[in-house]
Amino acid sequence: MKGGIYRNVSSIPGFSKSESIMKSSYDCVVIGGGPAGGSAASIVAQAGLETLLIERDPMPRFHVGESLMPETYWAFERLGINERMRQAGFQSKKSVQFVTHRGTESEPFFFRNHDDRPCSSTWQVERSEFDKMLFDRAEELGADCYDRTRWVDVRFDADDRVTGVVVRDGDGIQREIDCRVVIDGTGQQSFLANKLGLKQFDAELRKVAIWTYYRGAVRGEGDNEGATIILNTENKDAWFWFIPLSRGITSIGCVGDTDDLLKGGGKPEQVFFEQLDLCPGLRPRLEHAKRLGEIRTAKEFSYSTSQNAGNGWVLVGDAFGFIDPVYSSGVYFALEMGIRAADAVVAGFQSNDLSARQLGSWTDEFLEGAQWVRKLVHAFYSKEFSIGRFMKEHPEHRGRVTDLLIGRIFDESAEQLFKDMEMSMKKAM
Hints:
The protein is of the alpha/beta class. The protein has 3 domains: 9-63 and 128-200 and 304-365, FAD/NAD(P)-binding domain; 91-124 and 207-299, D-Amino Acid Oxidase, Chain A, domain 2 (2-Layer Sandwich), CATH 3.30.9.100; 382-428, no CATH class. It is built from 13 helices and 20 strands. The chain has a 7-stranded mixed beta sheet. Helix 1 runs parallel beside helix 4 (127-140). The termini are far apart.
């Protein structure tokens, strides 16, 4: 097995990580073992470049963000894992549904009604299993993959060009690794963005997410069984996600303004159940369900970065930026960014151009498409917005709205959709 000390080989008698085969020099180092890092390392390694992928936590590790957009199909196709996804036992996701603050359920948005190809169905995934699948795939394609390895620093020369990284393995041994490119997939830790002062929070989306898991929650019926459901609270000050996973487990999370939900030092568990009492669409779904595990929180998670690439480095996934989780765009964006950045890195090595311009050559097109999801998020948080009312007023936009929910954001503009949406909200004021 190449690399791969994360597969419990440390349990072999006499084995020491300090004797592992991590090299002192690589073409490319990818930091962060999530979807962005795993996909980027796979593509770069597949192209024949010496690639190191490191993750600070033991793999598999817990992570929230289980719902996929159907457009992940094409990323999985590129990575060669669509068949593995079908065989993994993940909950199938064929629709999205919305529930108003009064408990009124919208008609499900069935993706197949818009496009009946296999790419219009996706999955709800346990991230521990899903991320490890991607980590394993990177190793299969030639990357040296190490978990329990922390990134300590990134080295630059006098011209601000990356020359290497400093890492610390699970035995506490610090190593300096030479490389020509660093791909930062460190998620919301945003290693390089924080180091270089590039992180910019969205002042209008200062939210907190409070979540846990339940067994036995009431799901939709038939093809709507695996639907992601978005449910508003009575005052529309918060909303809940309902994400059905395999084995009868459902992810349930509450999202609202940080200042509102946690004012006065409110405890997350108390806030969660207070908001649940205010959510008429969710209460009956959990009436006979059993909560599993602890209550978890994440705060102020919507942000962007003022610079996405430099000489010898590029940001991907949540290290690049993150949009509110309401439309489940996070994993799809991470995969898309990882592949696009990796293609730019491979092309850069081929042309001997590892400049900021080359490594970030994909970012303008990506941001142009991602803006439509960001606009849809901002519309969602307007109390004047109702997806059901908008669909009645503008049935001609149902296909384009479904496109956004599927993740098809790079092919055509949604400008007219949002002009009509803005007028709809103004009329509701």
